[in-house]
Amino acid sequence: MLYPLTFTPQFKDKIWGGHKIKTILGKDFPTGPDGQPLPNCGETWEISGVPGNISVVKEGALVGENLQAILEKFKEELVGKHVYETYGNEFPLLVKFIDANDDLSIQVHPNDELARARHNSFGKTEMWYILQADEGAKLNSGFNREVTKDEYVKAVADNTLPEILNIEEAKPGDVFFLPAGRVHYIGKGLLLAEIQQTSDITYRIYDFDRKDDKGQTRELHTEQAVDAIDYHYYGDYKTSYDHKRNEGVNAVKSDYFVTNVLDFDQEVMHDYTHLDSFVILVCVDGSLTIQATGGYSVPLKKGECALIPASTPSVTLVPNGHMTLLESYVP
C-alpha cells in the first residue's frame, strides 16, 4: 500500500553554491569522491524523476525503492489517472532547494515543443518561492522593455545584456513564476524552493566571465537560446498572492502545476479526492506532522518534502506551533 513518501536529498556541488542548505535548512553535506564533505552545495534535488537523478525513498515499507520503479509499479495509484494518461512512466515535477552564494548564469529554458525536437525532453516551466534573502539580494525575471530578437543578439555580442534585463529585489515569501522562454537568473544571497517540470535543459547565455578552480569558463549556449526566448515585456514579473493565516491561498496556476501557500498555526484536514493527482508538500517554514489514512504519520520540517500519492484520499496537517507549506499538484 502507498503512503506519504519522503526521499533522500541529492546534493549538487555548484560553482555558485554556498552553505545555507546546511546552516538554514539543516542538511549535512555528504562526502565527495575524495572522502571529504562537499565544500559547498548549490542545490538539493528533493523529488526527482530525471534520468540519472531518480529519488530514492527514505522511510517506510518502500525504503530504498526509487521513484521510477514505484511509478512503474503503482501507476495511477501514485500519480492519478489523468496524470498517468498524460505522462506515463515519467514523473512530471522536480522539486529543488537552491542556495545562490553567487549570481547564477543568465539563462533560459526551452518550451515543450523545442525541448522535444532538440533533446527528446519536456520543456522547463518553473516557479521560485524565496525562503531567505540577504539584504539587497536581487534576481532577474524577463526583460525591462520590449526587445527584438536582433536587439537581444546585439546585446549579447556587445556584453550589454544586463542593461535590458528586469531586476527585482527579492524578500522571503516572494513568489516568481517563470514560464519556459523567460530569461532569468537567481542573484547572490538568495535561498529558494523551486518547483518545475521534469527537465534539466538549460541554455546558459552569460556567466559573468567567471572561471572554475581549473581556470575554465563554463559552456555557453547563446545560439540555442535565441529561438527559445520570449522577447515580450510583461510589466509585472512578481506573482501576487494574498498572505492569509489558516487559509490555503493559490499562488501559481499553470498547465503543468498548481501551487498553493498554506500558512497555518492550527490543525487542518485536506481532502484530495477531487484532484486526480499526487500532491507534493514542501515545508518552507516551521514544522508539522502529516497524518494520513491507514495510520501513517510523517514528520516534516523546514527544508523537507513529502509526496502524497493520488490514492491517499485525505491528510491532516498538524503544525508544531506554525508551518508554511507549498502544496503542488498537476491540474
From TrEMBL:
UniProt keyword list: Isomerase, Metal-binding, Zinc
Sites where the protein binds Zn(2+): H109, E126, H184
UniProt-annotated catalytic positions: R204
Residues in Mannose-6-phosphate isomerase cupin domain copies: 251-329
Cofactor, how bound (note): Binds 1 zinc ion per subunit.
Keyword Protease: no
UniProt name for this protein: Phosphohexomutase
Species assigned in the record: Fibrella aestuarina BUZ 2
